[in-house]
Amino acid sequence: MGGIGIDRSRLLLLIVFLGAALGGYAFIDLQILAAGNLTSMAVFAVEVGILALGQTFVICGGDGGVDLSVGAIAALSQVLLGLVLKDRLAWELGVLAALCAGAVMGLANGLAYAVLRIPSIIVTLATMFAFYGLALVFTGGINIDLTASPPAFLAIGQGSVIGLPFQVLLIYLPVFLACAYLQLFTAFGRGLYLTGTNDLAARLAGIGVNRIRCLTFVIAGVLAALAGVVSAARLGTARPDASETGNLLSIAIVVLGGADIFGGDGSVVGSVLATMVIAVVDYGLSYNNFNPIYQAGVIGVILITSVMAQNLVRFRARQRS
Amino acid sequence: MSASISRRHALALAALSGAAALAPGSAEAKSWTIAFVPKLIGIPYFNAMKEGLEKGGKDFGATIIYQGPTTATVEGQAEFVQSLINKHVDAVGVAANSPTALEALAAKAAKAGIVFYSSDSQVDGPDVALRVQQTDPKQLSYAVIDQLAEQVGKSGEVAFVSGGPTATNLNTWIGYMKDHMAAEYPGLKLVSIQYAGEDISKATTVTSQLLSAYPHLKGIVGVNSTAVPGAAQAVLTAGLSGKVVVTGITDPNTIRPYVNGGTVKSVVLWNPIDLAYLTVWGVVQILEKKPFSPDNKVPNLGNVKYFPDSKTLLLGPPMVVTKANVSLNF
Q1: What is the CATH number of domain B26-134+271-316?
Q2: Which chain A residue has its CA at the smallest distance from B105's CA?
Q3: Gap between the Cα atoms of B289 and A210, Å rounded
Q4: Residue A239 to residue B74, Cβ atoms within 8 A
């Protein structure tokens, strides 16, 4: 189906979902389509959306690969960024430190998986606790106040460019394009697809399966750190307990985006659409004053429905042929 | 014919009242819309605040929107606050999960002409129009330690069980508790501070671990509303009722069975219903552009102090909950 790993019917389904959600909310209150509301949705989607882009690579790598630590990497990275900013060093240095830290944390995950042969779900469960723990140790449990940081830094999360939120236009969009290019047009992307679908075949074809999977964790780590930077700039605070929902929500988004949890199929395009669905549904529920207790449940229902709809379509297609 | 006239009449009335609601100057007929985003929804403490908000809304002419995240995260709060700003409510406030993380949104609200306030757990910065403080945090923390020392005695090992490790108010109280212990009761030794989130069963687990790790433990302070009953349950299960003192900051509803059963002698708190009621009163004063004086007569609450430097309304001194008054419903 489609290009490598891209499932067109899923993308179509997500677009229908998106239209239905927006249309439904607009039916209740047309104001939801106002620019202020749409940009708010986009702003809230960016951080978990970046986490989900990294998660996509890990899951597509196969062998049951998931990264449960992306939220924790975001938290620890933003704490390191906060410490640099607190010492009044250049903010660019802080951002660089955060991204490097993210890469190192991702590499630690990748090496533990590839060299020590520990299943990634165990590795990243352990590092999730470890990274959050370290973040608490570094801060003593206290949020780092970044509200007095240089305006150029805060603009990453609060500024706007030609009327659009800075982080949507100048961070999320370029990152998405880079990820799409990486997945669809490079040897790495093709190697990743083969690794995810059939790692024995990949190995026989001379692809460094472990190296590729290790690299997916590094990508997820760097992107998680980037999400941490954006979140710190948006809230003007570095928090050791940041992005706690991101660990699992990013996985839900990738699966909703059409990725096979066992590897291979899946695309960053699907993940982006799924991020938009989740963001719209989530924001619309709070905007329309729905009981928040149901929000988590609604996301679960969407996930199950989309998978079931997909199975139904596949089943029909198989019957016909 | 007459039906169509009265229908047209009704439409005209509706249009008029719609215009009245839109016109900014017509304060008389206006009912304010005040939104409040608690740290999280679905726990007794914030349910009590909701009750107080609605009571205040009825008495002072405001419609209350009560919305919040299901886990105590500031990201969740930020989402709700932003959507409420986009909805153009008259005032939006929080019990903040972080003092600084909502400053940018407070500025956004102020820019949109929306009153931003905090109650229970405060937000920093110049754009916060009002802070409503339950009691002086120092007085409250000192009162808890006084209760602890009264029951434990002059010396012994004690431990704290708190909520989220980053919660502003909880960490402030812990700081004052430590100060007061060091200054007034040097014989009391703080051996551990544990964090159990806003979760009773986790507080039970954490306390059980403390009891086995420190067999000589003589007292436990629960710093938030879920830690005290959790700790009491652990002490009860371990068969240490009466041997290990449990006290702290929590509400009567949560702790009642343990006070009646004798595991807990006293806890300290303010009344969250009153706190929320005062919050609505204060916000309405600001919306109606009535200034505060240092001492304010608030209906049903009596005299309430206002501190202009920090824009803070202070509910009053803490209340000690014992077997005598544990039947209070909140």
Answers
A1: 3.40.50.2300
A2: A235
A3: 67
A4: yes
**Of B270, B155, B266, which Cα lies nearest the Cα of B221?**
B266
Fold of the domain built from segment(s) B137-269: Rossmann fold (3.40.50)
CA distance between the termini of chain B: 55
Does the beta-carbon distance from B86 to A147 stay under 8 Å?
Answer: no
Question: Burial, B131: exposed, middle or buried (Cβ in 10 Å; 0-12, 13-18, 19+)?
Answer: buried
Question: Under an 8 A CB cutoff, do A286 and B86 touch?
Answer: no
pLDDT band, residue A3 (cuts 50/70/90): low
The answer to whether A169 and A162 are in contact (CB under 8 A) is yes
Which residues in A lie closer than 8 A to residue B41 (C-beta atoms)?
A: 292-293
Q: What is the pLDDT of residue A309?
A: 77
pLDDT digits (tens, 9 = 90+) for B277-297: 999 999 999 999 999 999 999
Does a structural domain hold residue A321? no
Q: What is the reported pTM? A: 0.82
Judging contacts by C-beta atoms under 8 Å, the chain A residues touching residue B66 are none
Pick from B36, B77, B87, B94 the residue to mutate for testing the A interface (most A CBs within 10 Å).
B87
The pLDDT tens digits for A221-258 are 999 999 999 999 999 999 999 999 899 999 999 999 99
CA nearest B66 in A: which residue?
A289
Question: Which of B73, B87, B98 minimises the CB distance to A143?
Answer: B98
For chain A, the domain total comes to 1
Mutate to test the interface with A, among B41, B50, B77, B98 (most CBs of A within 10 A): B98
Range with the lowest mean pLDDT among A15-19, A294-298, B103-107? Answer: A294-298
Residues in chain A whose Cβ is within 8 Å of chain B: 31, 34, 36-37, 40, 43-44, 136, 139, 141-143, 145-147, 154, 158, 231, 234-237, 239-245, 282-283, 286-287, 289, 292-293, 295-296
Query: What CATH number is attached to the domain comprising A239?
Result: 1.10.3470
Q: Is residue A91 part of a domain?
A: yes
- Is A75 a member of any domain? yes
Q: Is residue B134 within 8 Å of B301, Cβ to Cβ?
A: no
Domain extent for A143: 8-25+41-316
Residue B239, both tokens? 């068969």
- What the block records as the tokens of B324 is 């005598």
Residue A236 in domain = yes
Q: Indicate where chain B has its CATH 3.40.50.2300 domain(s).
A: 26-134+271-316, 137-269
pLDDT at B271 over 90: no
Distance to chain B for A11, nearest Cα, Å:
27
Chain B partners within 8 Å of A236 (Cβ): 100-101, 103-104
- B303 CA to chain A: closest CA distance, Å? 35
